[in-house]
């Protein structure tokens, strides 16, 4: 029970107030529209997942979907060899993701791209 129920409680109370007739004493003018809109913030997005994909091949390990929470983002990481040729790609959900280019790791360089704009946004990065 690590989630605070306060925001849901406030939304629920607002709904009860509207449904119980809080606008019943209001005189509507001609052409006036009364409505209540509750903005729903999407907290989770689906990301493409693949733990191991070599250039020109399909995903060979860990293929599927993952769900990124509010602290996570969809990511694509690419590893390049010392000549700059793509050697390996992996995709998934990553906590505290940041766009990074050409991090040196042994004889490889690694680049990360992150997104949260829509479901499966990391397929086309």
UniProtKB/TrEMBL annotation:
Name the UniProt record assigns to this protein: Prostate and testis expressed 1
- InterPro entries associated with the record: LY6_UPA_recep-like (IPR016054)
Q: Which residues form the signal peptide?
A: 1-21
Q: Where is the UPAR/Ly6 domain?
A: 45-123
State the UniProt keywords alphabetically. Answer: Signal
Q: Which domain of life is it from?
A: Eukaryota
Read off the Pfam families from this record.
Answer: UPAR_LY6
């Amino acid at each position: 029970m690590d989630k605070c129920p306060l925001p849901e409680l406030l939304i629920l109370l607002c709904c009860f107030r509207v449904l119980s007739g809080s606008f019943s004493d209001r005189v509507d003018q001609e052409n006036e529209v009364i409505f209540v809109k509750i903005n729903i913030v999407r907290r989770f997005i689906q990301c493409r997942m693949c733990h191991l994909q070599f250039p020109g091949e399909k995903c060979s390990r860990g293929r599927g979907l993952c769900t990124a929470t509010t602290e996570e983002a969809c990511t694509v990481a690419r590893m390049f060899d010392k000549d700059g040729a793509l050697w390996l790609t992996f995709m998934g959900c990553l906590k505290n993701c940041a766009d990074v280019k050409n991090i040196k790791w042994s004889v490889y360089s690694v680049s990360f791209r992150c997104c949260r704009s829509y479901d499966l946004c990391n397929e086309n990065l």
